[in-house]
Design a protein that fits this description.
Structural class: alpha/beta
Number of helices: 6
Number of domains: 1
Order of helices and strands: EEEHEHEHHHH
Radius of gyration: 15 Å
Strand order of the largest sheet: 3-2-1-4-5
Largest sheet: 5 strands, mixed
Distance between the termini: 24 Å
CATH topology: Nucleotidyltransferase, domain 5
CATH superfamily: Ribonuclease H-like superfamily/Ribonuclease H
Helix content: 40-55%
Strand content: 15-25%
Number of strands: 5
Amino acid sequence: MPSLLAVDLGLKTGLALFEGQGKLLWYRSHNYGTTERLKRAVPKLIDGIPELAVIVIEGGGNLATVWEKEAERRGITSLQISAREWRLLFLYSREQRSGVEAKRYAGETARKVIDWSNAPRPTSLRHDAAEAIMIGLWGVLHMGWLSKLPEGLHRWRASVAKQ
């Protein structure tokens, strides 16, 4: 079954892996510290993910290029999005008035995705991992891998998800 890796880009990177039916498998946060460490880590990370078909990256610049080049080298689809794209789908306007607010609401919504997916619950959920979960959820909707929206996430609009 294909999988999708979501990346909240930075040297402090949020990662979330989704399976082909749209469920979250795992999520984590990792501080790579330097671009060189990130460059060395990306191939190893990808090697550990069976049937990786899509990488969705939020952010740009040199760090995005690291992920995109590795994806291209392996024939993996890569999509680059902005925070605005997934936030429009999952958060109300009033929840996006500031970056701090958006991160808080993303964390709350990510916890609902964790519960819906029956993924292990976190003791604490870093904002980069929470945002990676939301990026990945945007990705599985965009790819058409999720046929039904999970219960309890009333913000979602199927018409927006199919764009």
